[in-house]
Write a structure and sequence with these properties.
Radius of gyration of chain C: 17 Å
Distance between the termini of chain B: 70 Å
Helix content of chain B: 55-70%
Number of helices of chain C: 11
Strand content of chain B: 5-15%
Chains: A mainly alpha (319), B alpha/beta (586), C alpha/beta (240)
Order of helices and strands of chain C: EEEHEEHEHHHHHEHEHEEHH
Number of strands of chain B: 12
Distance between the termini of chain C: 40 Å
Number of helices of chain B: 24
Strand content of chain C: 25-35%
Oligomer: heterotrimer
Chain lengths: 319, 586, 240
């Protein structure tokens, strides 16, 4: 492999990594908002992503023929729609199950309920992924359209050699993910609702003194968190095939991104997810496919062991 | 009959019943289930031995299980080694890998620990896939089947599985009734309090995860022999770790029989339903495990064994530990005495110590000394840095600057449990009782610092309990005590570690005048034993009758120092306490 | 003519888990009054406030806020009725800016309605909150955080301001300033205030009436000038 070829590979991986990373980043933001507000690590986050993917898939299968917005754009629209749909699922699950072991009720349990929260969300993950097997079947499916198979060529940049091909579906998904993250960050930063969620995260007791209903804040945070991750899933769905067990694969990617960015920080989570995407794609140049995930896991372990507060978060946000 | 002998009797009976049951069953599928169930029960026990007792949730026990399974399978395929040998190797490998995992991972607590543990088996899963071991089948050995654990009669497998389970039960019973069990329970209930009571928390956690990993490795090795095929997903997958955790939590966390009960209910249930409905509902096993654990968390968070117990014996508080009775009511209080030699010499010296948290200077260039046998009061308004000072003295936090010496030895590099062993004990401002242990066990934990013997520890504990006057409460759980009793119990726990110096943090706070008087009498007794006392108190009331000398802190610095009668007249002190206007009025 | 009772606690017993910290507490606050609750550490002052705010549920007794049975109102709704709690140790929202903290103070409708005018008043009392409104609260000094906590309480436009140890951990000069401001606010706005303090002298000096809390019981109550000369206070604090 000559050096220009190598340069091309690097650039190609970098661009692909940034685009994938943008989607990972979006999913990480979902996970981190739940942790930030509720101090709960949601084990089932990958399964909510999976729900987002299947939401997009089934809507596409059912309504695909009508092709609003032109057939090409429809999958992306569905990905965005997966957000509100899974938001409702999250709100419902919070009310029925999760609420029982979090917040002030959780404080009365052993270790502030951390034990119970982790295990409860593990149970939800098992039910969702195996229930998904029943409802959706085990055959991998995808929401591919012709954009998934087309690329834009950037270049040639050096002479007639170095060109970067960017997948069109990936590009649109990556940019949409960025837009959703920015929109959500603005919502959290500027709106009264966002501020009340942040206040509940900072100090739940004081938030109650202000008249903020912290239970409701938790419920919304959980709904937002899983909804945002589901949008990430919906966007990924137009890139690659998936099956109901896909959540486990991605949940570590999400943890890695979130821990890298510092638990609880939105900006950190997005940058963390972005880094993981780049790391994954670039490592593919030198490593066999199966080891890509191992690299991420090992990175995750190194970060969590030596810098658990992460790299991108602000200090007072980490637990 | 001792509780260990009772356990062993139960274990023996259980084994007998199981064998008889197996003899009665004549369906090869059921017999296979009867082989698998004990293997998963061992996994449950393995998880429970570590996570159930220590409270650190492991989502990674599949790592040890999988390594055991692959070790047995690959050794047989590559080197023709027999499983009798390799299961032993698998046990060792499980233990060793757990130790290696524990060393770095115990830096973390809570969420972070659980997350990190999740990554180990999943990383291994992909590594084994990459190595090309997608499916390793154990070769059939027709010439010497028994040597390779390949039996015609399924009962032989059941007997082996049962033997493994009985061994795991025996180990759990022995450990849970020893110093090991008490130490881990203490870590689970309050790691800081455990460390301050002289328990080397890191050491015990490493021991626990090593034994736990060894059991998981053995279970994995045997699993390979029974199923004859090993795949990465089947042995390293999420579901393996989840099952270990679910069986233990479903049955009863931190109990001997809970994990067994969990496996014996859930494994057959999911296997039978899977056999029947797999075609229509392929994920039914996972759904059952998921629903089971959700239900347990919501309705019986400690598992069904505890739930049943609380229904059968309502009102009785859930107790762990050995709940020994006082063995030696005549235990002499003088057991706790410290030789009076060197009275008046400096026992503790604080030299120019500073500590800041963020922008807040909690301790500011603080210097003072405590003399042997003295009763020193440290007072100051809220936020003056008193508790921070104690945290510096017992090693919870290290100073940014300055030096602390105890009997001439620097405390700089000592962990709290070492400092406790050197002879500095403490109580906490907000009492930290081990709520699910009896008063006696709470105190016994403190006594293990200087002895490995259960008898000696309980003798020291008895003496301490007698000294503080809690003989009648010693069988009550820590959670049922009144404020005064809690504080007395903490004092007893500190005394049982045979300290030379006790740090007492606001022991009088919130007590009514009568209780306060009682407490003063007890403190006076402690001091008569020759133990040096440093006591923090917010209010000076009562303290003036008690202490030899006061140190007054304000904003982390020394405001005044002197005899009680001098201090109460000191205008600076009155201002810090009652406010400037008080002086103007007088 | 006596003023109407705004807040009335009758025989409250409360605590954490099984253990009661407060025993049979009865306290009343009249409209426009400033009352002090003093007592040494561990006497139960903070628990008293948490009980009024609904974070701690009493095991017996009743609380009336005007005509309302306060115990029937969910904790987060109590702020909407006009109860503002400035908690011990300030507890500002560290990752929110000063202005955002004040906005959260005005979260309830009654605070939101006149927030703009109210904000101006708060800034005249505590100019530092206006000068650095964009700064994160976590980066403020202790005294500034205390001012923000009080400002946040006032932003709710409350009927009752509950102040839990505003002097804690602060330098004397700042304490003086804060107390001065508090009195000014109380006088000009005729706001009803419950002040919990360990600094007896200041707390008594400014109060209309005072209660002395020791070991969860009210051992004394009355006019400040009567209490000032009562040896039992000095005893409770200094022991002689």
């Amino acid at each position: 492999m000559d050096s220009l070829q190598f340069l091309e590979n690097i650039l190609q991986s970098l661009v692909a990594g940034l685009l994938m990373g943008s989607m990972y980043g979006l999913m990480c933001v979902g996970l981190t908002i739940i942790f930030g507000v509720m101090r709960v690590i949601n084990f089932a986050q990958g399964e909510f992503m999976m729900l987002g993917m299947y939401f997009a898939y089934f809507c596409f299968a059912w309504f695909g023929t009508y092709a609003f917005f032109g057939g090409l754009w429809f999958p992306f629209f569905l990905a965005l729609l997966a957000g509100p749909a899974v938001f409702l699922v999250g709100v419902l699950l919070h009310r029925l199950l999760i609420n029982a072991v979090t917040g002030r009720r959780g404080n009365k349990l052993e270790a502030q309920g951390h034990y119970a929260q982790l295990v409860l969300t593990l149970g939800i993950a098992l039910v969702l992924q195996n229930g998904g097997l029943f409802l959706f079947g085990s055959t991998p499916v995808s929401v591919a359209n012709e954009l998934s198979y087309s690329a834009w060529e950037w270049g040639p940049m050096v002479g007639d050699r170095v060109s970067v091909f960017v997948n069109q579906a990936q590009t649109i998904s990556g940019l949409l993910a960025l837009v959703v993250v920015i929109g959500f960050a603005v919502l959290m930063g500027k709106s009264r609702l966002g501020k009340s969620l942040r206040a509940s995260a900072d100090n739940p007791d004081a938030a109650i003194y202000m008249g903020i209903n912290v239970d409701r804040a938790h419920r919304l945070a959980f709904g937002f968190g899983v909804g945002i991750t589901a949008i990430g899933g919906g966007l990924l769905a137009s890139n690659a095939p998936f099956q109901p067990y896909i959540g486990t694969e991605y949940v570590i990617i999400m943890y890695a991104g979130v821990v890298l960015g510092g638990l609880g920080s939105i900006r950190g989570a997005f940058l963390g997810g972005l880094s993981i995407g780049v790391l994954q794609q670039v490592s593919a140049i030198i490593l066999p496919n199966q080891l890509q995930n191992t690299v991420i896991f090992i990175c995750f372990l190194i970060i969590i062991l030596f810098r658990p507060q992460g790299f991108f978060g602000n200090k007072d946000r980490t637990a | 009959m001792s509780s260990i002998r009772k356990d062993f009797l139960h274990i023996g009976l259980f084994g007998l019943v199981y064998i008889i049951l197996a003899l009665l069953v004549d369906n090869s599928y059921y017999l296979l289930i009867m082989t698998i169930v004990p293997v998963w029960a061992v996994m449950g026990l393995s998880w429970n031995l570590f996570s159930g007792y220590s409270g650190l949730v492991s989502f990674g026990h599949a790592a040890f299980f999988g390594l055991g399974a692959y070790l047995v399978a690959l050794c047989m395929v590559v080197w023709d080694l027999n499983p009798w040998l390799t299961i032993m190797l698998a046990t060792a490998a499980g233990g060793l890998s757990a130790l290696l995992v524990g060393i770095p991972t115990f830096r973390l607590r809570g969420h972070y620990f659980a997350l990190a543990m999740l990554a180990y088996p999943l990383a291994l899963l992909y590594i084994f896939e990459w190595l090309g071991y997608q499916e390793v089948a154990l070769p059939m050995k027709r010439e010497t089947p028994v040597l390779y654990m390949q039996f015609e009669n399924p009962l032989a497998y059941i007997a082996l599985a049962l033997a493994l389970l009985l061994a795991a039960l025996g180990i759990t019973s022995l450990l849970s009734h020893s110093r090991f069990g008490m130490s881990l329970l203490a870590i689970k209930l309050d790691e800081d309090a455990a460390e301050a009571a002289g328990i080397n928390t890191l050491y015990w956690k490493l021991i626990a995860i090593t034994i736990s990993g060894a059991l998981a490795g053995a279970a994995g090795g045997f699993y390979a022999v029974v199923l004859l095929v090993v795949t990465p997903l089947a042995v390293f997958g999420m579901l393996v770790s989840a099952q270990a955790l679910i069986f233990a939590m479903f049955g009863g966390v931190g109990t001997l029989w809970g994990p067994v009960l969990g496996a014996f209910i859930l494994v057959p249930l999911s296997e039978l339903l899977y056999a029947r409905y797999a075609a229509d509902f392929p994920g039914i096993q996972g759904v059952i495990y998921g629903v089971a654990i959700i239900a347990v968390i919501l309705f019986a968070p400690e598992g069904i064994l505890w739930k049943v117990r609380s229904i059968l014996k309502p009102g009785q508080f859930r107790m762990l530990g050995s709940t020994a009775s006082i063995t030696d009511l005549d235990a002499d209080e003088s057991l706790l005495a410290v030789s009076q030699g060197g009275s008046g010499e400096k026992i503790l010296e604080v030299i120019g110590v500073s500590k800041a948290f963020g922008g807040l200077q909690a301790t500011d260039e603080l210097s003072f000394a405590v003399k042997q046998g003295e009763l020193l009061g440290i007072i100051g308004p809220n936020g003056a840095g008193k508790t921070t000072l104690f945290n510096l003295l017992n090693g919870f936090i290290k100073p940014d600057k300055g030096e602390i010496t105890f009997q001439g030895q620097s405390l700089r590099k000592k962990r709290p449990n070492r400092i406790c062993a050197m002879g500095i004990a403490r109580t906490f401002q907000v009492a930290k009782p081990f709520t699910h242990l009896s008063v006696l066990d709470n105190v016994v934990i403190g006594a293990y610092v200087h002895t490995r013997s259960k008898e000696e520890a309980s003798r020291h504990a008895s003496a301490a309990i007698k000294l503080v006057g809690l003989e009648n409460q010693c069988a009550l759980p820590g959670a049922n005590l009144t404020n005064k009793e809690l504080r007395l119990m903490e004092l007893a726990r500190a005394l049982a570690s045979l300290p030379k110096l006790i740090l007492v943090d606001e022991i009088l706070a919130g007590l009514d005048p009568d209780a306060m008087q009682e407490m003063l009498v007890v403190l006076e007794k402690v001091r008569k034993l020759g133990i040096t006392i440093v006591i923090i108190e917010h209010s000076m009331q009562a303290m003036v009758q008690l202490v030899d000398r006061f140190i007054v802190l304000d904003h982390g610095a020394l405001l005044a120092e002197g005899r009680p009668e001098e201090i109460v007249k000191n205008p600076q002190v009155i201002e810090a306490y009652l406010g400037k206007k008080w002086l103007e009025n007088d | 003519m006596t003023k109407p009772v705004l807040l009335q606690l009758n025989n409250i017993c409360a605590g954490y888990g099984e253990i009661d910290v407060l025993h049979d507490i009865s306290i009343s606050l009249l409209e426009g009054e400033l009352i002090s609750v003093v007592g040494p550490n561990g006497a139960g002052k903070t628990t008293l406030f948490k009980t009024i705010s609904g974070i701690v549920t009493p095991s017996s007794g009743e609380i009336h806020f005007g005509e309302q049975d306060l115990l029937a109102v969910e904790a987060s709704r109590r702020a909407h009725l006009g109860l503002a709690h400035v908690p011990e140790g300030r507890q500002v929202f560290p990752s929110l800016s000063i202005l955002e903290n004040l906005e959260m103070g005005a979260f309830a409708d009654r605070g939101r309605a006149g927030f703009k005018e109210n904000l101006e008043k708060i800034i005249t009392w505590f100019p530092v909150l206006g000068e650095r409104s964009g700064q994160l609260a976590g980066t403020l000094s202790g005294g500034e955080q205390q001012m923000l906590a009080i400002g946040r309480g006032l932003a709710a436009n409350p009927d009752i301001l509950m102040l839990d140890e505003p002097s804690m951990g602060l330098a004397p000069a700042i304490v003086d300033e804060i107390f001065e401001r508090l009195i000014e606010i109380h006088r000009t706005s005729e706001l009803s205030v419950i002040l919990v303090e360990q600094r007896v002298a200041e707390a008594l000096h400014f109060a209309n009436r005072a209660y002395v809390l020791e070991a969860g019981k009210i051992i004394l109550s009355g006019k400040p000038e009567e209490l000032q000369n009562d040896d039992r206070i000095r005893q409770a604090y200094l022991g002689m």
